[in-house]
Write a structure and sequence with these properties.
Bound molecules: adenosine-5'-diphosphate, magnesium ion
Structural class: alpha/beta
Mean pLDDT: 85
Number of helices: 24
Number of strands: 23
Low-confidence stretches: 141-150, 417-432, 512-517
Strand content: 15-25%
Radius of gyration: 32 Å
Helix content: 25-40%
Shape: globular
Length: 716
């Protein structure tokens, strides 16, 4: 697709292009030939559906040809001006074209004139109507739609471009025509010919013509899909190369799980692992036992027990006399992981360190020294773990409890820190060849399949769907505002029976404009009123780490009954005795967030209950709440969430570092993504350096787009 110099040719070089038009194009972000050629229509209007008035129906765009029998301009009672032009094609059936507030529209027409109207018909009282129809004047040849130019385009299919007010569609089309005629046949083909044949894709030049001047709607769609496929192929080839590079070229310590080690680890759990957990453990152990660095994503539904799997991997590493690190997205979670490990390892000799911002400088210094000396086996921390001054004696495994936070881009950075900043020297091996750690990343909530294939597309995936046995589904109810007292009474009843509860508020400070109940204010109200007989705590993101830690500890130890909090508890907080949850302004939370929150009260054997208060102001918010109430399957909710919010919103491109997709859409083009992924991985397996001549251009495109972000510079 890219011959860079050609596509970067400035638009000025097109003949007869005025400064005004250049300026208008610039406002659309169109400055080069490439910008223009790849400025695709947002949709198409098909004016080929020509019918008699008698045969019109509601639905899509239809076109009618007839004679003007009436022209009328009048004002409506609300002050709007209306122009109405009535066509008939048989003297019996009538179609009324209606324009609002365009008094000049009437001047274009005269009685007896032959016109065609295109638009979506609707039945009004006793005749068909079209609002703002597209008009062609049939008896004046000069006003027929422009034909020709690019060969084969159907004049009946009108591309609709995302435009600014002042750039007229016909101007854009004439520029496109020139650009295609002059440049399209010089564009290079990135797609290897075998893949082009496999799908019978049009050439790049043909696809551009079909997108901008389609002979048929299906040709337009096909042209566009060709570019989507190409975009996905470039991305997936980059991911395949990266995966290969990490797996095949990296060296990692061989960490074996003997039956004795396995038994020793399992004895630590007060439960036996579920089948899904066992499978994930087996997959991880297989990776750890190879001398290639594991690159694995562990996805689990909320509460399905991925921490136990992580603990298993950490302890296998330690049993092999290597150090292991667990990195959490927040201090609250790092502390909780440390606490979980403390519980499992109460009687073991595994030497542990919790590295967070709450340490004093002296504690931190001593901790770091012990890590570097190999006197620590297991370290838990926040992002602080990957800072420059952190050194390991022999790091074998890094687990990142990722919470969507770190994309593929950041992972490349961790790897460098892991490899260069850290110097893992295998203590028990004579061949002290430097290795890098194994690597496991966990997501906090399930993510949609297509997102996993892109943002985590360089990783192998283990999935835990199954919840531990005896887990009861959380009943979630959307409560009307007037039921607040009853909900509080239910909470008090639960607390009196020895349970604990969360009340989650969306914002910390009162914001009148948003009318959000602030956690602080809610805390004050609940302490003074409905829960004055209980021990109530407040937890929010603006408290310092010490305060947060203290509050969480007290809640965990059941020194608090009720925790009023912001969504800081959203991820991972694990207090099985907490079974009651109130979510205020639930409409402000995303679906995955709600699912995470609900997960806080389904962690033990007793049934959790979740009460929502919500004032959805949009249909989208209502749909989101309904979806949440309908299912407790986190994988299904993730797909739904992405559909409701759009792929871009769901996973900010900047966040994952791969950049926007220009053509493809992770929701609507999932089939092409899968196909391109399969092709890309096969291609890289057969030609790891992309050195074959037919792969040269693809390789160039991959390096240009992803070489830097994915650290691919070395290939080739
Ligand atoms: P998440 O996947 O949300 O991180 P956790 O690992 O925190 O889930 O586990 C949720 C709860 O389930 C914890 O309290 C944990 O002790 C418990 N749990 C995990 N695995 C099992 C199991 N196989 N059987 C019973 N309880 C389990
Ligand atoms: Mg957890």
């Amino acid at each position: 697709m890219t011959e860079p110099n050609l596509l970067q040719t400035p638009l000025e070089t097109l003949p007869n292009i005025s400064a005004t038009r250049l300026e208008l194009l610039g406002r659309l972000g169109l400055r080069s030939i490439g910008d223009l050629l790849f400025h695709f229509p947002r949709s198409y209007e098909d004016l080929n559906d020509v019918r008699s008035i008698a045969a019109l129906s509601t639905g899509g765009i239809q076109t009618v040809q007839g004679e003007v029998v009436e022209i009328e301009g009048r004002s409506l009672s609300d002050g709007r001006q209306i122009v109405s032009v009535i066509l008939s094609d048989d003297g019996k059936n009538y179609l009324e074209g209606v324009w609002f507030n365009q008094p000049f529209a009437a001047k274009r027409f005269r009685y007896g004139q032959r016109l065609s109207f295109s638009g979506k018909p609707k039945w009004f009282r006793d005749h068909w109507q079209m609002n703002n129809p597209r008009v062609q004047i049939l008896d004046s040849p000069s006003s027929l739609p422009q034909r020709g130019g690019v060969q084969g385009g159907s004049p009946g299919i009108v591309p609709i471009y995302p435009l600014t007010e002042d750039l007229r569609p016909e101007h854009l089309r004439s520029l496109l025509r020139q650009a295609i005629d002059r440049y399209a046949s010089h564009l290079v083909e990135v797609l290897p010919s075998s893949l082009r044949q496999k799908y019978d894709w049009p050439t790049c030049a043909q696809a551009l013509r079909d997108v901008h001047f389609p002979p048929t709607l299906s040709a337009a769609a096909r042209g566009r899909r060709r570019f989507i496929y190409e975009e996905f192929l470039i991305l997936q080839t980059a991911l395949a190369l990266r995966r290969r590079e990490m797996r095949e070229e990296g060296r990692a310590p061989v960490l074996t799980t003997t039956p004795a080690i396995d038994a020793r680890i399992r004895r630590l759990f007060p439960f036996s692992l579920t089948a899904d957990q066992d499978r994930a453990v087996a997959e991880i152990c297989r990776d750890l036992a190879a001398d290639k660095p594991m690159q694995r994503l562990l996805q689990a539904d909320v509460g399905a027990g991925k921490t136990a799997v992580a603990v298993y991997a950490l302890l296998t590493t330690v049993a092999n006399k290597y150090q292991a690190a667990l990195m959490a997205p927040t201090e609250v979670l790092a502390r909780q992981h440390a606490h979980t490990l403390d519980r499992y390892l109460a009687h073991s000799r595994v030497r542990r360190l919790l590295l967070t911002g709450a340490l004093t400088p002296a504690q931190r210094r001593d901790g770091l020294a012990a890590l570097a000396a190999g006197d620590i086996d297991l370290v838990v921390g926040t992002q602080a773990l990957v800072q420059e001054e952190v050194r390991f004696a022999r790091l074998g495994l890094v687990i990142i409890d990722e919470q969507h936070k770190f994309g593929v881009h950041q992972r490349a950075r961790f790897r460098r820190l892991g490899g260069a900043g850290v110097s893992p020297v295998p203590a028990h091996r004579s061949d002290a060849c430097p290795t890098e750690p194994h690597y496991l990343v966990m997501t906090a909530t399930p993510i949609p399949r297509t997102v996993a294939l892109t943002v985590f597309g360089d990783l192998d995936v283990s999935i835990i769907r199954q919840l531990p046995p005896g887990r009861q589904p959380v009943a979630a109810r959307w409560e009307p505002a007037n039921q607040r007292e009853r909900v509080y009474a239910r909470l008090r009843e639960g607390l009196a029976q020895g349970r604990q509860a969360y009340v989650v508020c969306p914002l910390v400070e009162e914001s009148a404009a948003l009318d959000v109940k602030a956690a602080t204010q809610m805390y004050a109200e609940l302490c003074a009123g409905p829960f004055r007989d209980f021990r109530v705590g407040l937890l929010h993101g603006r408290q310092d780490e010490k305060t947060k830690a203290t509050i969480m500890d007290r809640f965990r130890k059941h020194e608090l009954d009720l925790l009023v909090c912001t969504s800081v508890i959203e991820v991972g907080v694990d207090v099985p005795n907490a079974t009651l949850l109130v979510i205020e302004h639930a409409e402000r939370f995303g679906l995955s967030q709600l699912h995470q929150l609900r997960g806080r009260v389904s962690r033990g054997p007793s049934a959790g209950q979740c009460f929502l208060f919500a004032e959805p102001s949009s249909e989208e918010a209502r749909r989101r709440l309904r979806a949440f109430l309908r299912t407790t399957d986190g994988f299904a909710l993730a797909e739904e969430d992405m559909k409701l919010r759009g792929a871009g919103e769901f996973f900010g491109a900047r966040q994952h570092g791969l950049g926007e997709l220009r053509f493809g859409n992770l929701i609507t083009d999932a089939d092409l993504l899968r196909a391109a992924r399969k092709d890309a991985f096969e291609l890289v397996a057969g030609d790891p350096g992309l050195r074959r001549p037919e792969h040269t251009l693809l390789r160039a495109a991959v390096l240009e787009r992803y070489g830097k972000t994915l650290d691919l510079a070395e290939i080739g």
